[in-house]
Amino acid sequence: MIAWIQKTKVGLSVLGLIALSTFLLVFSLSQQNQLTTRPDGVPLRKGPNRTSKQLASLKAGTKLTVLERKNGWWRVKDDKNNDEGWVASWVANNTWLKKPTKLSEATIVLDPGHGGSDTGAMAWNKKKYEKTYTLQTAKVTEKELTKAGARVLLTRDKDVIVPLLHIPRTAEKYQADAQISFHFDSSDTHNSASGISQFYYNDNSLPLAQALNKSLDNLPLQNRGYESIPYLVIKDVSRPAVLLELGFINSDKDFAYIQSESYQEKAAHDIKVGLDSYLENN
Where is the SH3b domain (predicted)? Predict the structure, then answer.
């Protein structure tokens, strides 16, 4: 009799643990499909992109049920009035953004040129590499854009080589609003050229090049303007894409700026200003 009671207690304990585990699992899964908006005025859109028609503006604290996920955009239902639509998950979940903007809804891909065994151009002393400063500048720009609420994706975040044909894949996969590649120019001889340039190829990239050309006029180096050139990273991509040359690495004057944290921060700020303008008008 005692043995039977002991066995029964063990069995009931096991059943209790199974029931508790099942409840916790179901509860956890249900919570994963719940979302409460944090900023005020989160756009509810007809489709999963920032240019889709806006159906409503959701107040902070709006409770939503997540119905579908697609490349960072979530199809949701407003639990209060049953409205359905899409929100940018990184906007709805943002803890420091007070009110969404065109930029905060955007997906921006930053491409630090070269990397790994591909050093890129070199400074005149052959000891400093382009790949180092493209990554530094891209990371500073990532910080600036993330602070503004944008979703920012890097093609590389460390010293590795990314095959040229692979670079546009990130922008294509996430249907990016802009892809910006960072480079530093080099002339045939030491100190024979100076300045910054912007390059695009596809027609849909021209407005982005023009917006960045205007905002980058504020940099301390001469702006040599924008031009259409079939560079592989901006040619084989359907998304708006621009390649920036932010100075000549074998110019003493330009390299002093290129190495400077303040120059990188100024470039990042001006890129943000250019993106603000571009997204507002396109």
Answer: 32-95
